[in-house]
Amino acid sequence: MQHIVIIGNGISGVTAARHIRKMSDKRITIISAETDYFFSRTALMYIYMGHMKFEHTQPYENWFWEKNKIELKNGFVSKVNHKANELVFSDGETMNYDKLIIAVGSKPNKFGWPGQDLEGVMGMYHKQDLENLEKHAPDNEVCKHAVVVGGGLIGIELVEMLHSRDIPVTFLVREESFWNAVLPAGESGMINRHIKTHHIDLRLGVNLKEIISDENGKAKGVVVQETGEIIDCDVVGLTPGVSPNVDFLKDSGIELGRGVKVNRFLETNISNIYAIGDCAEQHEAIGNRRPIEAVWYTGRMMGETVAQTICGNKTEYKPGHWFNSAKFMDIEYQTYGWVFGQPKEYEQQFHWIHQDDTKCITISYHKDTKEFLGINTFGIRMKHEVFDRWLNEKRDVDFVIEHLPEANFDPEFYKTHEKEILSAYKKSQLQTV
Amino acid sequence: MSNKLNHSMSLANPDANGISTKQKIALAIGFTGLFILVLALFNTDLPNQGIFLTVSLGMITIGTILYANDAYLTKHEGIKNDQVWFKSISSRGIIGWLTGVGLTTFYIVLYFYADLLGLGTNGEANTGLVALFDPLSRLLSGNPASQWFVYGTLYTIAILAFGYKFILKYRHNRYQQIRTVSVMFFQLGFAFLIPEFMARLNSESFKLPYYDLKNVWPLNYYNFEQYRVNEFISAGNIGLVLLIFGIASIFIITPILTYKFGKRWYCSWVCGCGGLAETAGDPFRQLSSKKLSAWKLERWLIHTVLVFVVVMTTAVVHSYLGDDSSKYWLTKKSFLISVASFLTFVFAGVMIFKRKELAKDAQYGAIGYFIILAVLMGIHFFSGDGKIFIFKAETLRSSYGFAIGAIFSGVVGTGFYPILGNRVWCRFGCPMAAILGFQQRLFSKFRITTNGGQCISCGNCSTYCEMGIDVRAYAQKGENIVRSSCVGCGICSAVCPRGVLKLENDKLDGRINSKEILLGNDVDLMEYVNKK
Which residue in chain B is spatially nearest to A326 when comparing CA positions? Predict the structure, then answer.
């Protein structure tokens, strides 16, 4: 019986395993050194906040794996020996495979800051990071102040987590406005203001110079590059993005770039080895996507796709229209299609913001053809299926804004804003004509 | 990070975050109000009961309101689940257990030892706690209080005060607010005030049974007992209208509303059990078990109770009907035949039209159906002297009243809130929920829609589902949630951080949409796999 080995029990690896099991009776083993069972990484924050316990973040009950004959192996793979189709674990144990799927995800970036390895300095990615945070920031007595460095999605989650325990937080963001490499100015500005209404000390346009140690090798403060200011703190969160967790594959003969290089079939240069999820790097980017996509949804889609190939239905990885979502403190965010933080030269954007400063949308369209290109929506839920259809049908922006009520996904009895959006849009068109 | 529950045995400060000074004051006010009730319970001689009762209930209400104001109005609108699993009360810590034991004791006393509460027996005047409520009872119905009046008043206060708290907790969510106003209204008006006013109409020549109009059989399993039916009939037109309303509720009103809105119109908008669960019980919703084994147990238990109540009610009605059709059109025989025909009609309809949707459950449905039919025939052939088989119909009724009406719905159903979650009765026991759920699963426009491929499997929806539905299991497959047990409280949708879930009444086409590959991936692949 063919043995399929998957390194990594995150969404990508587990999705691949589930689909392979649906289609075949191959032997499947999932390896992880992080946890015994699959959990939702995106939910780690809620454990610290007390919304859930760790077990709630596990989408399948523990009997699921045995029942579906998916073997789970707790171990750290230190080497892949592809000529012998063999994995070597850190304790020296080995395991053979017929096909190998690398789904090892990411690791937090560290940019060589002085003091980045001190006690009390941590990323927020692994379950172990959460345990570390619980140790250093159990409450606002032990952790009187925290500094979070890095203005992305994980950064703001870490800020929200610390805030939930009434720990005062300073949030150092390198950019002039929060996440403005991705979000257009109007949205990014609204999120800046929202962060501040939660009494977070948001510092924009500043860099971390170094982290200062106390006499015991524990962080006691940070120095701001631009001003030289020293901010006292007990915990430093470093969240300047993630990169593929592929160090163990150096010199393995598997082609690496920043991640594991794969073709559109998610195959590496070695014929029976595949890579999916955060750690996979496309030779060439697909459409407007990045060659490495560290997103839950794309990891899942790659898992769905590679399972087909492994089970004999060779399938190209063809993600559909881009979509994503996040939550910034109390404000939910969804995006469908492409809306760029710095508009492309062909791109025109219509922005509407509600007077309460917690809801806004940005609709992107082609300035000549008026073709609808994408939407960002904050504080108003919208339907994935409807925008996917409109993007397929290449609807123009007028159609989309007139039919916006069709896409509304807010709970029943919510106030709707489509009329106001429509009239704001009409007004904006009069001004530009 | 500990995965264990909070087992801190400290009573002084078992919570991760202390509570604010204002909240402490609010708690002190509320507990002082409760303490007055305790004093009365121990027969402390309270002069001017009316004033003490007002002060007591007022302080409980004001304490809750002040607490809620400080807990929610000082913060942004949004989801307020911080620290839920760290607080002793809401994570089966020591305070949770103590609350559970306290509530359970209260229910046992209420149902079985009402004299301990001060209920006057044999015409004696009330004493203690019950006596404290006499002035209010006299004001409303003109009669002295009973233990049920005490319970009803406290129940109503709980729904109103904690309903206010719930509205503040969800002040960004109009669905939650409107729904809560609805349960507060039905509790105060239909369950509490109207029956008391109806009692005022009673005189020597005219008597209506105590009737909470929104309480539909089989939830009020006693509605068609002989004494009640006699009272309805002898009360003339009004009584007859009420009796017909009771029957129409079962066969006409309920099915129509459930078809249009799902069972939520009742369970989380109208019902009193649901009302308490959604307000005072809200802090315990995350304690319900989401295990598959709990779901299996739930389906066996709730349908067993349903079979029990159908048989019991049939037997009771059968026992007081006559044999002679010339005296009254409804006889023992014709009644049994009509019950059997109705069940056969429903059973055949489901088997013919909905067999596929039921899949394996169809077998269990068939078993239940044939058991009931066999029992009905048994009743016909083997009854005599008011006996059915070896039991008296009255024995059947009182066993049901004891095991289901008192122990299951009261002692376990509410007493165990802090241990098993706030919908134990609704989920495992309520026969009304079983009927509505059966209909919701098969003949309703209601569903929870999943938003394409946006689910991140975080688990908030499942954790906060009071009915123990593993909502995420559906959402992460891009599948709509169509479950008989769903009471449509809408909390899964509220707590979802990515806007994935929406409660809707929509077309029947595509209501159940099983998927393997979610929206967002290769279109050809999605079609290839999902149609396989």
Answer: B498
User: Would you tell me which residues 3-32 of chain B have a C-beta closer than 8 angstroms to some C-beta of chain A?
Assistant: 3, 5, 16-17
Q: Cα–Cα distance between A314 and A92 in angstroms, integer?
A: 35
Residue with tokens 């119109």: B265
Q: Which amino acid is at A181?
A: A
Interface test with A, best of B86, B522, B527 (most A CBs within 10 A): B522
Which residues of A are less than 8 Å from B495 in CB distance?
51
Nearest to B148 by CA among A165, B140, A336: B140
Cα distance between residue B155 and residue A178, in whole Å: 49
Q: Does A411 touch chain B (CB under 8 A)?
A: yes
Mean pLDDT of A204-224: 97
Mutation site for B-interface testing, chosen from A38, A142, A325 by largest number of B Cβ within 10 Å? A325
Smallest Cα–Cα separation from B183: which of B249, B254, B263, B265?
B265
ipTM of the complex: 0.96
> Across the interface, do B460 and A315 touch by the CB < 8 Å criterion?
no
The set of residues, in sequence order, having a beta carbon less than 8 Å from that of B288 and lying 6+ positions away, is B294, B420, B421, B422, B423, B424, B427, B465, B466, B467, B468
pLDDT class for A430, splitting at 50, 70, 90?
A: confident
Digit-coded pLDDT (tens) for B85-127: 999 999 999 999 999 999 999 999 999 999 899 898 887 889 8
Q: Measuring CA to CA, which residue among A146, A138, A139, A104 is closest to residue A121?
A: A146
Judged by CB atoms closer than 8 Å, whether chains meet at A58 and B459 is answered as yes
Residue closest to B357 by CA, chosen among B430, B303, B435, B438: B438
Contact between A116 and A211 (Cβ < 8 Å):
yes
Burial of B233 (0-12, 13-18, 19+ CB in 10 A): exposed
CB-CB neighbors (< 8 A) of B518 in chain A = 300, 304
Which residues of chain B register pLDDT less than 50?
1-14, 16
Measured distance CA(B166)–CA(B283) in Å, rounded: 10
pTM above threshold 0.80: yes
Query: Which A residues in the span 230-249 are in contact with B, Cβ-Cβ below 8 Å?
Result: none
What are the CA-CA distances from residue B304 to residues B178, B312, B414, B441 (Å)?
34, 12, 20, 18
Q: Output the pLDDT for position B13.
A: 46
**What is the DSSP secondary structure assignment for residue A268, as one 8-state letter?**
-
Arithmetic mean of pLDDT, A352-366: 97
Residue in chain B closest to A304 (alpha carbons) equals B517
**Nearest residue on chain B to A55, judged by CA atoms?**
B3
Cβ–Cβ contact A47 with B under 8 A: yes
